[in-house]
Amino acid sequence: MSIEVRSLTKTFGAFTALDGVDLKVAKGELLALLGPSGSGKTTLLRIIAGLDWPDSGEVAFDGENALARGAGERHVGFVFQHYALFRHMTVFENVAFGLRVQPRAVRKSEAAIRARVKELLDLVQLDWLAGRYPHQLSGGQRQRIALARALAIEPRILLLDEPFGALDAKVRKELRQWLRSLHHEINLTSIFVTHDQEEALEVANRVVVMDKGRIEQVGTPDEVYDRPATAFVHGFIGESIELPVQVGDGAVRLDGKALGIAPDGVTSGPSRLFIRRHDMQLCAAGSGAFEGAVTHVRTFGPIQRAEVKLAQAQAAIEIDAPRDNQLRVGDIVGLTPRRYRIFAAAE
Amino acid sequence: MSIEMTFQQRRTGSFAERAGGRSSAHAEPVNLRTEPRGVRIVIVAMAVIFLSLFVVLPLVVVFAQAFSHGVGAYLAALTDPEALAAIRLTLLVAAISVTINLVFGLIAAWAIAKFDFSGKTLLISLIDLPFSVSPVISGLVFVLLFGAQGFFGPWLASHDIRLLFAVPGIALATLFVTFPFVARALIPLMQEQGTQEEEAAISLGASGLQTFFRVTLPNIKWGVLYGVLLCNARAMGEFGAVSVVSGHIRGETNTMPLLVEILYNEYQFVASFAIASLLAMLALITLIVKTILERHLDEGQLPHEH
Amino acid sequence: MSTSAARRSSLPGFGLTMGLTLTWLSVIVLIPLAGLFLKTLELSPDQFWSIVTSRRTLNALRISFGLAFAAAVVNLVMGTIIVWALVRYRFPGRRLFDAIVDIPFALPTAVAGVALTSLFAEKGWLGAPLAALGIKVAFTPIGIFVAMIFIGIPFVVRTVQPVLIDLDPEIEEAAASLGASRWHTITKVILPSLVPALLTGLALAFARAVGEYGSVIFIAGNLPNVSEIAPLLIVIRLSEFRYADATAIAVVMLLASFVIIFAVNRLQRWAEIRGQATS
User: Fold this and answer.
1) What is the pLDDT of residues C45-72, one digit of tens each?
2) Smallest CA–CA distance from C204 into chain B, residue
3) Less Cβ crowding at N or C end of chain B, within 10 Å?
């Protein structure tokens, strides 16, 4: 099922959660809503689900106005950050809940319900927990049961609110893979909210980057990483170096000194230069755009991470270099960006 | 906060051993934090003596007096027709009050705990009002409304309806004084439990009623019992308010507490204390069950579903 | 259906439950109380004043408020001692005594009334030894005082108990390690941090004792101007069909209760602020 959101606005008192948001979600895709706290991603998700209502704007499911219906009538499966499993019901009863509350006319027979629950528990590989209570399960198990429960009603879309936020790192990674393969298997239009960019980039077909109630960029993980549309996206995704520069007369200057790199063509005047940490190339001192002294070196895995104090602007930056460079504290190095972006200064 | 909420909300303090478990003190408190032995003995002695004199003795006296002429006299007092009528009336009024205030409490707690709106504090304070009103005044307000000279008095008289000096009046006064109990037991509990499970139920297609009965109610069952228990204890024991509206018509409009008073004033001490002993036993049972429920309520909130 | 449902919530039933709540609240609580104030308005200010300041009324109010305050103070002192013993010490039967503290609250007032009267009557278990000492308790203002102490026992204890339990032991240890004597630590460090809770308990005990009827009227002598409490005077006026008088006295008592409750709320807010400051 496809979703279209138009000019959605929502405020909570003086705080603007969503500021005229437009979005189209294609049928069957796995979409990530990515952004820091307060970016509006959860609000957007809840409005799509019917758990919240916008101040203005439209939401359409397959062209039909979804706002005319409440959450129960929209046939969405919602997975909460803290699972919201019914604490006094067993796992089985939790998963069966959506099927058991259907109006009598539509409701399946108890036998059919039992079969479906078993099918779902098999799908999430937790059929052996059917008789347990939520407080007896681990976090990862609870989340999978929450997912099974949401899928039981055969929803048209699946909405997940920071589904792995409450879990520890290892379990998070495992469940990420699992969600991805599950989506591959059932091909249900799905939207999940996360503040973890690694998660978004790894799992989603497309990523929606949000900040302060607005969409900054929509694109595939590659697009968002390699071709960030705004300074925010560049800074939020991947590790970046940011430097304040002046663009004018065809040159880019840091602290008055020309860097010898071409201006982006997008802006002039005060701007922000973004360079990915690993896009900084080491060269002989004096021959690069930047020059500085290494003040700190940390090696982990295949990477050396060095803190360099630049001669210009007294700025301290961190760069990632291949391990065999063997940088040492005190080395004077030259640095040239392989790739970079320049954006206008503070919006 | 109101007067009677101290009774309901002091759950965290109900077992003082939690104090000792905090620092290293399992056996003996840390030396730096304790008074000399002599002082301790004096303080404990004062506390024990005071409580014994002021609390234990009165309780004992009730039973001592009730049985002072033997078990036979005791039972005779309880099976007296007037006594039986009083017991029946008390049970009836309690049943009415508890049932109605239970339904109200559930409805009010749902409205207050599961939604956001301004004026919530005001609403809760209004619900608490009966706690701050003296029992006599609680009865007075109904006399002012329904008494012969009251606002509705003439209208009632012309329709031949008797509210005061009859069971309906007693029920009304009791409803007033027990009004907040269930609501105030449920509101903090439901607020603490949040709305997530209900939202999950709604998103799965459940209707409002289905959500309430299948999801919310099972989660608050201990709170409901707690509120019902306290509501019942107050309903059965209420004296001042009922005294004002009842008319003290023997065999008809006397509840147990009123009968205790009447018998006492007639110097029928054994009978008076016999009825009183029933009420005292009710109080003790209430306290015991309350302590058990408090333990359940505290536990029920610990393994949070996260 | 438009999207401008700004107040819509995901959970249903707000309108219905709110409506029912407000309706029932009005019927049972608000309208009756409003009736009380409306009745008062039927009096001219002069009439009101003369009723309230009549000799008998003033004495009843004096007795109710004065003795209630005295009893609350006693409960403040004894309550502090009791809660200290219950929280800080171990002694046989401690849990039992802890549970006992709630009895004055759970016991129906009429039962408490007849029990206390029997206990302190001249031939009673406690009345007899006191009479031998020349102290008459039952049917005197002292009886009222005793009854008010009884019903106020749980308030200071239960209000202070959670605060005392949660008190940070490190603060005391710090004081001790800095050389403060035990007495010093208690009076200068611990008790001050308990003050909001203590005052709250005092206020609650006071408010309860002022309005108390059942526990008191048996043991009180009920002699006008001597041992007659305000609630009793209200009942008497009602039985005389002097509704206006009863109403006026009731209004005075109600206003006093509201002032006390307001003070209690303020005290609790103060306590919260204090609590945040020390944690």
Assistant:
1) 888 888 888 999 999 999 999 999 999 9
2) B3
3) C
